[in-house]
């Protein structure tokens, strides 16, 4: 399988919503309006495509003044039938590369019971900052807030 990462298009929103509904049935999956708002805001969104089929997506929002940016991983998802093939890892690495270009730390929230995602994030330098009780609704599931410093900052601190 050859997967290409490229900017997410408005025409892909319907597929994103379909994937969200499958991935997050007990919580509030993102709506088409939420995806449109993110794309309209200029957030950095990538899709993973096999030919024209969207297999997954990831979105990174960047805020703050130049030289003092902060990034937030807003969403990442891969259709279940394509999980375990490295697509989520590739999407995450691509958005982290963008954050590193901007020298921005990255924050995210992840369900405390999502062991696969937690392992993926920790492997890529994220650490837990705290817990948000009942963050996901309507399930009431808790979330960890995690942070990853920009890659350049990690190398500078180590040196």
From TrEMBL:
<keyword id="KW-0012">Acyltransferase</keyword>
<dbReference type="InterPro" id="IPR050680">
    <property type="entry name" value="YpeA/RimI_acetyltransf"/>
</dbReference>
<feature type="domain" description="N-acetyltransferase">
    <location>
        <begin position="3"/>
        <end position="151"/>
    </location>
</feature>
<dbReference type="Pfam" id="PF00583">
    <property type="entry name" value="Acetyltransf_1"/>
</dbReference>
<comment type="similarity">
    <text>Belongs to the acetyltransferase family. RimI subfamily.</text>
</comment>
<keyword id="KW-0963">Cytoplasm</keyword>
<protein>
    <submittedName>
        <fullName>Ribosomal-protein-alanine N-acetyltransferase</fullName>
        <ecNumber>2.3.1.267</ecNumber>
    </submittedName>
</protein>
<dbReference type="InterPro" id="IPR000182">
    <property type="entry name" value="GNAT_dom"/>
</dbReference>
<dbReference type="InterPro" id="IPR006464">
    <property type="entry name" value="AcTrfase_RimI/Ard1"/>
</dbReference>
<dbReference type="InterPro" id="IPR016181">
    <property type="entry name" value="Acyl_CoA_acyltransferase"/>
</dbReference>
<keyword id="KW-0808">Transferase</keyword>
<dbReference type="GO" id="GO:0008999">
    <property type="term" value="F:protein-N-terminal-alanine acetyltransferase activity"/>
</dbReference>
């Amino acid at each position: 399988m050859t997967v290409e990462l490229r900017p997410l298009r408005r025409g892909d929103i319907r597929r994103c919503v379909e994937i969200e509904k499958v991935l997050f049935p007990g919580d509030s999956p993102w709506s088409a309006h939420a995806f449109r708002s993110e794309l309209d805001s200029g957030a950095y969104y990538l899709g993973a495509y096999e030919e024209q089929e969207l297999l997954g997506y990831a979105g990174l929002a960047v805020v703050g003044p130049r030289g003092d940016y902060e990034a937030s991983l807003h969403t990442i998802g891969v259709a279940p039938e394509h999980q375990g093939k490295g697509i989520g890892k590739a999407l995450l690495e691509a958005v982290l590369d963008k954050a590193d270009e901007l020298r921005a730390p990255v924050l995210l929230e992840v369900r405390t019971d999502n062991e696969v995602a937690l392992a993926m994030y920790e492997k890529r330098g994220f650490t837990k900052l705290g817990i948000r009780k009942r963050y996901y609704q309507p399930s009431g599931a808790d979330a960890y807030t995690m942070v990853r410093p920009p890659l350049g900052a990690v190398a500078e601190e180590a040196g």
